[in-house]
């Protein structure tokens, strides 16, 4: 029956974890998937999350179904975290928001909703490069995917002129996907002034801005500073769509906690959009999982846990920054050919090293070091115990 099914390639990101797991060498390092590791290289359950789970267990919650759009208190608090408590559309009750199966699920709901109801275009522009899953998510949602220039290989920074030109040349009212902060995979973000300019172009060209905010808190260590772009667009009166993930900033990877929201004109329009979000979601997965949303909501709704959590996010961001400094210094000490300043200037969880596909392949085969073929490394996978071995191996791969 299935003789016509061709073998598919491994996932460019999650496939790296499979290869890593199959490697038996004790020196092996996985810098593929963006998942935080502590100083000992171990998965990290945030103390605020542990505390929230204790409180939850003590409250003996039931296991009933959530509504289709999820836990109401969680979605309210998630929106507050992204838009800010003072946000006008939030105060006016005109943000439609649903819980989602983390960031991917939020993007998928958004893609499906836009594909069904956005009346002006079926075209979405993604930055080049973008997170590897963006293209299949939006393609499978029924949208046509195109690219706008983002990363400049020569400067290893933002191609701001190219970005502006491409957005200006996009057909009016196209959808444009923007990484709210800590761009994945490059670690290169626009400055606040550049965001203001991007917002002006999006407004002028009547483009529809769809923000993916998977790393709120990871870029600067502050959740409100990292929400600058989202909040600026909203303060300019733009009706954005937003995908949020709590995988990274709360370390809730496998709990699949996220939210999708859309700004509407008023509460009446919001109610209509809400009703259709339910119709999009119900045939996909009925309703979302409850446990992770309860954890996130316990943190977001308790002032003490919230401030503890914020300092833990900052702690993760700071450890990554210290690894950037150390990696840069070690590569320079080893007289590694090339410019490595971008290791320090890039932000968020990833560094776009500039290593080529043959170099990344050699690192996997000879040094048991795994990363995505585009040369992206998850900085969070480095620690004082493995960074020197990593730097020496990179230095060797570059010199070979
Ligand atoms: C990543 O880019 O590594 C993360 O967003 C995890 C994933 O699902 O790809």
From TrEMBL:
Subunit comment: Homodimer.
Catalysed transformations (reactions): L-aspartate + 2-oxoglutarate = oxaloacetate + L-glutamate
Source domain of life: Eukaryota
Keyword Transferase attached: yes
Organism of origin: Schizopora paradoxa
Entry similarity comment: Belongs to the class-I pyridoxal-phosphate-dependent aminotransferase family.
PANTHER family: ASPARTATE AMINOTRANSFERASE (PTHR11879), ASPARTATE AMINOTRANSFERASE, MITOCHONDRIAL (PTHR11879:SF22)
GO cellular component: mitochondrion
Domain Aminotransferase class I/classII large: 27-393
Principal EC category: transferase
Cofactors, names only: pyridoxal 5'-phosphate
Molecular function in Gene Ontology: L-aspartate:2-oxoglutarate aminotransferase activity; pyridoxal phosphate binding
Database matches in Gene3D superfamilies: Aspartate Aminotransferase, domain 1, Type I PLP-dependent aspartate aminotransferase-like (Major domain)
Further remarks about this protein from its record: In eukaryotes there are cytoplasmic, mitochondrial and chloroplastic isozymes.
E.C. designation(s): 2.6.1.1
Pfam families assigned: Aminotran_1_2
Keyword tags: Aminotransferase, Pyridoxal phosphate, Transferase
Protein name according to UniProt: Aspartate aminotransferase
GO BP of this protein: L-aspartate catabolic process
């Amino acid at each position: 029956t299935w003789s016509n099914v061709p073998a598919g390639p491994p996932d460019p990101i999650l496939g790296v974890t499979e290869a890593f797991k199959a490697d038996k060498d004790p020196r092996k390092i996985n810098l593929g998937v963006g998942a935080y590791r502590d100083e000992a290289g171990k998965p990290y359950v945030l103390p605020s999350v542990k505390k929230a789970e204790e409180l939850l267990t003590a409250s003996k919650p039931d296991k009933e179904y959530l509504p289709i759009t999820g836990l109401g208190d969680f979605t309210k608090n998630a929106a507050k975290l992204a838009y800010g408590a003072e946000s006008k559309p939030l105060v006016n009750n005109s943000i439609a928001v649903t819980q989602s199966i983390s960031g991917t699920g939020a993007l998928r709901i958004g893609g499906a909703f836009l594909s069904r109801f956005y009346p002006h275009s079926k075209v979405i522009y993604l930055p080049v490069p973008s997170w590897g899953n963006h293209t299949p998510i939006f393609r499978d949602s029924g949208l046509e995917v195109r690219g706008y220039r983002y990363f400049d290989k020569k400067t290893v920074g933002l191609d701001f002129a190219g970005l502006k030109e491409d957005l200006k040349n996009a057909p009016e009212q196209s959808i444009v996907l923007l990484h709210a902060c800590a761009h994945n995979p490059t670690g290169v973000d626009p400055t606040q002034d550049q965001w203001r300019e991007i917002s002006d172009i999006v407004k002028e060209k009547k483009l529809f801005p769809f923000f993916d905010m998977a790393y709120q808190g990871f870029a600067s260590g502050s959740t409100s500073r990292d929400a600058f772009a989202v909040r600026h667009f909203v303060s300019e009166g733009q009706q954005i769509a937003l995908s949020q993930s709590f995988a990274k900033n709360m370390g809730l990877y496998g709990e699949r906690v996220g939210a999708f929201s859309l700004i509407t004109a008023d509460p009446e329009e919001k109610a209509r959009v809400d009703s259709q979000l339910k119709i999009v979601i119900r045939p996909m997965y009925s309703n979302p999982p409850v446990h992770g949303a309860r954890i996130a909501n316990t943190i977001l709704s308790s002032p003490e846990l919230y401030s503890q959590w914020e300092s833990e996010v900052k702690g993760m961001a700071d450890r990554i920054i210290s690894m950037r400094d150390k990696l840069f210094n070690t590569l320079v000490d080893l007289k590694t050919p090339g410019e490595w300043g971008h290791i320090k200037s890039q932000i968020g969880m990833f560094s776009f090293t500039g290593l080529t596909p043959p170099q990344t392949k050699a690192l996997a085969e000879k040094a048991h070091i795994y990363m995505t073929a585009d040369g992206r490394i998850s900085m969070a996978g480095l620690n004082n115990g493995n960074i020197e071995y990593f730097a020496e191996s990179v230095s060797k791969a570059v010199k070979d």
